[in-house]
User: Which sequence fits this backbone?
């Protein structure tokens, strides 16, 4: 059963923590993999201090005569002058007579320069930290906010807080076009996802990728299924019908505290003290919060503009235009004529122009007419290309099955289009003729 495998993987990760938490000086040989199965050694782990060189750190252990040979061996893999402050350096001693026999310098979490002392001097090799790959299956109900639900999920208790944050960030990124996590998530919404990750022996995650995810928001299920036909890590996400989860516009141009004013045709203006329409959305946010372009386009205005204060206007395809107002400042390099991509940072929240507090005033226009950015039906990204459809249906059904194996899960109802494609594919397979 896959669930059991996932549980075993978590147990394995926990075991990884145990290995790494041995106190310095405790012999580890014998419990590690073959590559490390050296004669009994004892260890001392030091950390490179600020402004300290490798030579200075090792001075006590290695005399000046030998240092040259050691640094020469080290520089076959990295520059001794470029070791970062805080780098972990492990001295390995023979247990019987406490002779220094090696030095490990952890260049990155994934690479260690292993220096060994032999009869004539020092030798070195680059050792890659071994990793294993597992898949996490996680599901639950949202009681307060998604962040709490995922961070508190017992299936993830062996993950570091940082890794759990990465998971939430990935979920946020694949659903950013469908669901505004800060505004639309409700108590009682449910989620389930399958996440593949690479794990180091100490239990930390090297990389991770969301394979499939479902978010049921107020009774409506949203899906994001990874499709990576070339297997090069450059895949993207689609719903069950093979439609892209991407939209031409992001739902929101920033991370905000709350929406302070909605789009309306009539409201009382606190500064002008008159009733006037509000043709945009106000997002209250801290001064300096990044503001992103919601879609690809070209900057057509950047600068002071009366009541808008520092503002940016971007022209997009299909007659769309967006405006970002009251900015404290602009991102350097953003000028009239600049090409921007969806999600690029263009400026920072402020309160220039007519504004009572720090907020972003965001407008969307089409053909010169104002639209409500929160209710406009936005054009979608490209669907799965027709030549990849057969592979897509195969991959999609495997990944949907991942979600159905999560404890307490209901089966996922495929839409008529997907079922039709599945049947079509099975017929072809039974025919045996097509590849
Ligand atoms: Zn406004």
Assistant:
């Amino acid at each position: 059963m896959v669930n059991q495998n996932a549980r075993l993987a978590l147990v394995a990760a926990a075991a990884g923590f145990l290995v790494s938490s041995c106190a310095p000086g405790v012999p580890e040989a014998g419990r590690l993999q073959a590559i490390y199965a050296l004669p009994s050694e004892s260890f001392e782990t030091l950390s490179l201090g600020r402004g300290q060189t490798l030579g200075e750190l090792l001075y006590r252990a290695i005399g000046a005569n030998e240092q040259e040979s050691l640094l020469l061996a080290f520089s076959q893999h990295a520059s001794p002058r470029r070791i970062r402050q805080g780098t972990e350096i492990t001295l390995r001693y023979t247990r019987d007579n406490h002779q220094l026999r090696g030095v490990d310098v952890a260049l990155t979490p994934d690479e260690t320069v292993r220096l060994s002392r032999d009869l004539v001097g020092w030798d070195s090799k680059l050792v890659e930290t071994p990793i294993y790959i597992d898949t996490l299956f996680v599901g639950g109900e949202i009681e307060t906010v998604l962040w709490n639900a995922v961070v508190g999920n017992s299936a993830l208790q062996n993950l570091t807080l940082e890794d759990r944050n990465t998971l939430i960030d990935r979920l946020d990124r694949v659903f950013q076009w469908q669901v505004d996590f800060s505004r639309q998530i409700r108590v009682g919404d449910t989620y389930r996802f399958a996440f593949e990750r690479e794990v180091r022996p100490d239990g930390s995650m090297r990389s991770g990728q969301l394979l499939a995810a479902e978010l049921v928001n107020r009774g409506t299920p949203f899906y994001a299924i990874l499709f990576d036909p070339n297997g090069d890590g450059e895949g993207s996400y689609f719903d069950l019908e093979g439609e892209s989860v991407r939209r031409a516009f992001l739902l929101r141009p920033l991370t905000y505290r709350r929406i302070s004013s909605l789009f309306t045709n009539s409201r009382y203006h606190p500064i002008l003290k008159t009733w006037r329409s509000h043709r945009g959305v106000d997002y209250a946010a801290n001064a300096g919060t990044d503001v992103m372009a919601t879609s690809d386009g070209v900057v057509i205005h950047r600068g002071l503009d009366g009541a808008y204060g520092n503002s940016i206007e971007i022209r997009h395809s299909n007659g769309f235009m967006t405006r970002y107002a009251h900015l404290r400042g602009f991102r350097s390099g953003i000028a009239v004529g600049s090409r921007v991509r969806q999600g690029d940072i263009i400026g920072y929240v402020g309160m220039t122009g007519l504004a009572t507090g720090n907020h972003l005033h965001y407008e969307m226009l089409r053909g010169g007419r104002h639209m409500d950015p929160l209710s406009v039906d936005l054009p979608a990204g490209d669907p799965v290309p027709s030549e990849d459809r057969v592979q897509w249906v195969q991959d999609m059904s495997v990944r949907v099955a991942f979600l159905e194996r999560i404890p307490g899960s209901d089966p996922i109802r495929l839409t008529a289009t997907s079922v039709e494609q599945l049947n079509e594919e099975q017929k072809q397979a039974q025919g045996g003729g097509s590849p």
In short: Helices lie at 2-20, 54-58, 64-74, 146-151, 161-175, 389-404, 416-431. Residues 34-128 form a domain with the Nuclear Transport Factor 2; Chain: A, fold (CATH 3.10.450.350).
